[in-house]
């Protein structure tokens, strides 16, 4: 089942919501506006007076009525192994091979034992063999260059990485909210 992209009344992106929670917003008349073509029809019970079955057409993007979020949500997604491995595409950032989630570990580029912190900019996905080989050294000390520089994903990047079943309307909306990166100079 597709998840619904939830927004506040001003159109700020909040999070993914389960379709059941979206139905509750519709039934409580708490939907301010929607975007996209309906992606799912939910059938309810039979009305005792009319004999008709109730239906709710869910849209892929739903803005809820009510007060808008003052500050919005924390723009930094929580650092979890699931989010980290998604950011790195389930690749070991040392050998470049793709692994199942269970075969990956969180490696601290600057080891915690050397003052490194457990933050997005200091962690990468690593297979068990590479993490063990690197040990408590930096990539330079271990002679194991990183294949990519670790970075802190934006909230929108995190939402894209955390949902495998993004509908076209949702992806178009999210892409328009990705952070703009300055163009790289030509060499």
Which tags fit this structure?
6 helices; 22% strand; two-stranded antiparallel ribbon; alpha+beta; 187 residues
Outline of this structure?
Helix content is 23%, strand content 22%. With 187 residues, it is of the alpha+beta class. It has two domains: 4-74 and 162-175, no CATH class; 88-142, DNA Binding (I), subunit A (Orthogonal Bundle), CATH 1.10.30.
Description of the structure:
The protein is α+β, with helices and mostly antiparallel strands. The chain has two domains: about 5-75 and about 160-175, no CATH class; about 90-140, DNA Binding (I), subunit A (Orthogonal Bundle). The chain has six helices and eight strands; from the N terminus they run ββαββββαββαααα. It has helices at about 20-25, 80-85, 130-135, 140, 155-160, 170-175, and strands at about 5, 15, 30-35, 40-45, 55-60, 60-65, 105-110, 125. A four-stranded mixed sheet has the order 2-1-6-3. A two-stranded antiparallel ribbon has the order 4-5. It has a two-stranded antiparallel ribbon with strand order 7-8. The radius of gyration is 22 Å and the shape is elongated.
């Amino acid at each position: 089942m597709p998840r619904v992209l939830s927004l506040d009344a001003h159109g700020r992106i909040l999070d993914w919501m389960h379709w059941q929670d979206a139905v509750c917003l519709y039934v409580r008349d708490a939907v301010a506006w929607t975007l996209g073509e309906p992606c799912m029809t939910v059938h309810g019970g039979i009305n005792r007076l009319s004999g008709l079955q109730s239906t709710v057409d869910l849209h892929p993007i739903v803005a809820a009525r009510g007060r808008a979020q003052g500050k919005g949500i924390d723009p930094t997604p929580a650092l979890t192994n699931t989010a980290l491995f998604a950011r790195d595409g389930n690749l070991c950032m040392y050998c470049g091979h793709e692994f199942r989630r269970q075969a990956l570990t969180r490696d601290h580029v600057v080891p915690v034992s050397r003052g490194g912190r457990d933050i997005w900019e200091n962690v990468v996905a690593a297979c068990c063999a590479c993490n063990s080989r690197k040990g408590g050294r930096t990539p330079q000390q271990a002679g194991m260059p990183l294949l990519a520089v670790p970075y802190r994903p934006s909230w929108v990047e995190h939402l894209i990485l955390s949902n495998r079943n993004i509908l076209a309307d949702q992806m178009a909306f999210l892409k328009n909210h990705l952070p703009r990166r300055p163009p790289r100079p030509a060499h």
